[in-house]
Amino acid sequence: MELILAAAIGVLAASGVYLILRPRTFQVIIGLSLISYAVNLFILAMGRLRMDAAPILDGANANPADYVDPVPQALVLTAIVIGFAMTALFLVVLLAARGLTGNDHVDGKLD
Amino acid sequence: MPFLACVLAYALQGRLASGAVYVTGGVAALLFLVTLLLFPQVSAGDALVYRIEWIPQLGLNLTLRMDGLAWLFCVLITLIGLLVVLYARYYMSPKDPVARFYALLLAFMGAMLGLVLSGNIIQLAVFWELTSLVSFLLIGYWYHRGDARDGARMALIVTGMGGLALFVAMLLIGHIVGSYELDDVLASGSTLVDSPLYPVTLILFLLAAFTKSAQFPFQFWLPNAMTAPTPVSAYLHSATMVKAGVFLLTRFWPVMSDSELWFAIVTYTGLATLIFGAAAALFQRDLKGLLAYSTISHLGLITTLLGMGTPLAAVAAIFHIANHATFKASLFMVVGIIDHETGTRDVRKLSGLWRFMPFTATFAIIACGAMAGVPLLNGFLSKEMFFTETAEFHPDIFVNYSLPIGATIAGMLSVAYSIKFVHGVFFGPPPTELDRVPHEPPALMRRPMELLVVVCLAVGIIPGITIGPFLAAAVQSVLGPDTPYYSLSVWHGFNWPLLMSLLAMLGGVVIYVPYYRRFRDVDGLPLLTRFRGQRIFERLLLNATNKWARSFIELFGTQRLQPQIFIVVLLALAAGVAAGWARMGNLPLPESFDPVLGLVWLVGGISAIAAAQQAKFHRLAAMILMGGAGLATCITFAWLSAPDLALTQLLAEIATTVLILLGLRWLPKRLPVPEDLTLKMRLRRLRDVGLAVLVGLGAALLSYAVMTRDAPLGISEFFLANAYKEGGGTNVVNVMLVDFRGFDTMGEITVLGVVALTVFGLLRRFRPAVDSAERPEQQRLLDGSADGQRVADDFLRIPSLIMSWLFPVVILIAIYMLLRGHDLPGGGFIAGIIMSLAFILQYMARGTRWVEERLRVLPVLWIGWGLLLAMLTGLGAMALGAPFLTSAFAYAEIPLIGKIPLATALLFDLGVFALVVGATVLMLIALAHQSIRRPKPAGSAKPREREGLAKWN
Question: Which residues of B touch A40 (CB under 8 A)?
């Protein structure tokens, strides 16, 4: 299980990094999204992997050891929402830049 | 206290433009009187101290401290300030903005008083900076003139640099002594000199004093500062600003001067400045330039005296400070008068003014005599003391001879330039090159100058009565109880100093005669004109700010994003490898293999790689593939006990996809052109692939290494144990978001709101590129196929009906998610995005126009109310005495639904919900609206009238 997730994080990160190094704005957006998947999974993995241990408490006297670490989850939840906002902002900046410069190169000019 | 009054006057000043002169003069006079009245207390020998505590823990207090030395300076500052104000009243042209002038003058007076009255050395450094800043403004007062701007800038850079050095020096002194109070520092005896930090401190300290007092090699800013109006020069460059440096030297003289280093640096810097200034003064054609170099020279004299380290020399220094201020201020005023009446300051054009302005000439001659050190004038007395000190026997043979000889040479030169001033301006044939006939200035303009000259005479003839007690008080404050005996009388009998004086007089005449015959038209010191400090400074400045900076940017900078990202990623990778390599250890082999997750990620991984490959030419495909990777992530969240994350990820994924779909239409068409792949591009791509693979490998290794280890004990236990007890919810993640870490969430929703507004703002004036401004090809085709009938309306009839009907259902689901969020997966974010998806469904079913006509939701209001609600919930907790965002909770029975938790956190979550709905809907409709706007393409000339769609524009 760990190996699969590690490989998944690696593949996502590699694809994302390759894309943000590309010259077109759209590629960069897709790349950033892929990297944020990788990062979110990585943060989640920092709490160690457990199945069937969702941090939904069973009444008042629950045993903390029965549940997965909730801290990374709270962090990732925030990260997802911020990631969404970031993608939206980037998209609009991309559109505006495209309108202003007439092309979709990240530097605003074709080389 | 005087300083407070001055600041008060300054604040009043700006509005009273015409009365400015009276206000300024009144304040100066008042301060002068107050200072005079304080004399009995000061002369008693104790310093008056007035302290306001600011940060006593750090030793930072506002302390005003007046002792004899400060008192003497206060008198100079206020008296000459008063006279300069009177003088400026007639000097300044009515066209100049006089209000600003007087305001600055007052500010300067305040800063200067603050400087001399500082009882805290940090405060002293602050006022020091303040004098630099205000003098910058005063020198650049005629800012329409280029030379004034240059002079002001140069003065600011040089003295400002010194100010920084002073600040560090003061910190060091405070560190060594252990207190920032001046009293403690002055009482510290030889602590400073014995400290190992003494050399550093001394160098920084002297750097400050020398830059301010225009000592060699920093003398060049002073002549350039002569571009200031003459009253400013009279005030700043004779009596106050440049005296700040020697004041500083005098102030710290008792605790810092007792070392060889001090003697060597200060004495010889002073001597070099003295001779250089005097020689340069002789070769000036501009009268103000002459006075400027003469000031430099006299400051060098004072510095030399302070450097010698004997108490008597210190007495002479203090005495000369006062004397120089009086005669130099009066001479500057004379130059101002001449400039005013004749229109020039060039000594070649002037001559024989004696006949036109006899009174001015008489007083000017007396002042010049004082400058040259003619007997019966105050300059003579202090110069005599100076000669006495230099003639003292010194064991070092070099010192023994260099000092008296240097002093005598400087004395000759100063006599020579004084003669030049008098002879060149007032004697000889009547001037021929002037535009108008000069005459005596108005009496009141002359009065200040005359008063100063009378002071010169009085001090020179009867020193014991006029200045004796004041000087005694000042000297005592510096030297303490062991003040040596000194005599102020005019006649000391025949001795070495008198001989040196005589020699200087004669030598001066002897120098002047050949000079007048041969070099009178030379401007600037012969042989040294090429090495002018000003040029060196300017070249240095130009190089530092322009050439070097530019080559630095060329070497290390790039405007292009790709290399920047590449370097950043590479550095991050290197840092990660460096940190992680040694700690990697032995990785255990995987214990279990999960085939389902494996399958999910087989698909997910392929999607990601394919997305990377397709993103250039097939945007839609890339986006779908990215969605595939996102879904795999989402499944992983669900699989690994994170239901909230899975839900949020899924919904955010949908919203992102819709957003990108709406935006895709505005991007340029891009077709694969395989043949233009050059070798360079291939190489670059290969390089990027290499980096990406390395980063991926690193990330995979790192996460595997972490996951196969045991988790350290973190803070998670706390949340799990207390979520129900204190937060009142069983969904720990949600409780954390709305309660334990509510502040984070608060910040996060603020960001979301800001982003939404930014998106909206950017799109309001959206200009698509020319080639995508037309309607898309597909739409045009459909419109053209059937005349008059809109075929597009016929699409998706049945799904759109279902979607319309789903609207209330989706809203219900959203509310359900919101309410159950505290105990089960759900919450404000999830509910918010679901709600906005309901709106998106309507867009898809009915089209943008239809929805916009019926939409009653104002997203901006939702954002505002959401933020406000979240904030008020937090403040409510504060009002009840708990920390910000503490929640209270109870359970309530609601018929039909059952028991639900009613925490104030629910209110907070409601705020989050409202904001997320508002933000998401705002972004979506702003983007969707672009398709029905007819925006003008970028580059077209006039904005077109928009018809009736102002609501979303």
Answer: 633, 645, 649
Q: Does B736 touch chain A (CB under 8 A)?
A: yes
What is this model's ipTM? 0.93
Tokens 């018929």 correspond to B895
B57 Cβ contact list (under 8 Å, min separation 6)? none
Exposed e or buried b for every residue in B117-132, given b needs 16+ CB within 10 A?
Answer: bbbbbbbbbbbbbbbb
Distance CA B185, CA B174 (A): 8
Tell me if the pTM is above 0.80.
no
Per-residue pLDDT of chain A (111 residues; tens, 9 = 90+): 788 889 999 999 999 999 998 888 888 999 999 999 999 999 998 888 877 777 777 766 677 777 888 888 888 988 998 899 999 999 888 888 887 777 778 777 765
In a domain, A89, yes or no: yes
Domains of chain B, by residue range, sit at: 260-522, 527-554, 727-953
Residue B632 with chain A: CB contacts under 8 Å: 8
Quickly list H helices, B821-951: 828-846, 848-854, 859-879, 904-929
Task: Give Rg (Cα) of chain A.
Answer: 19
Number of compact structural domains in chain A: 1
Residues B426, B361: contact at Cβ < 8 Å?
A: yes
Q: What is the residue whose two structure tokens read 């109070």?
A: B181
Give dist(CA B436, CA B650) in Å, integer.
90
Q: CA–CA separation, B608 vs B40, rounded Å? A: 88
CA-nearest of B679, B688, B680, B686 to B567 is B688
The answer to whether residue A56 is domain-embedded is no
Residue of B687, B426, B716, B136 whose CA lies nearest to A65 = B716
Cα(B328)–Cα(B235) distance, integer angstroms: 9
B298 contacts: CB under 8 Å, gap ≥ 6: B274, B277, B320, B324, B328, B371
Residue A40 at interface with chain B, using a CB cutoff of 8 Å: yes
Supply the range of the domain harboring residue A17.
Answer: 2-50+67-101
- What is the DSSP annotation of B123-143? HHHHHHHHHHHHHHHHHTSST
* A9: in domain: yes
β strands within A56-110, DSSP E: none
DSSP calls for B174-198:
HHHHS--BHHHHHTTTTHHHHSTTH
Angle (deg, nearest 10), helices A25-46 and B679-707: 10
Tokens of B731: 């969904």
**Distance of alpha carbon B843 from alpha carbon B920, whole angstroms:** 14
**Phi, psi of B581, rounded to the nearest 5 degrees:** -60, -50
The answer to whether the Cβ–Cβ distance between A21 and B736 falls below 8 Å is: no
Tokens 């690696």: give the residue: A10
A52 interfaces chain B, CB cutoff of 8 Å: yes
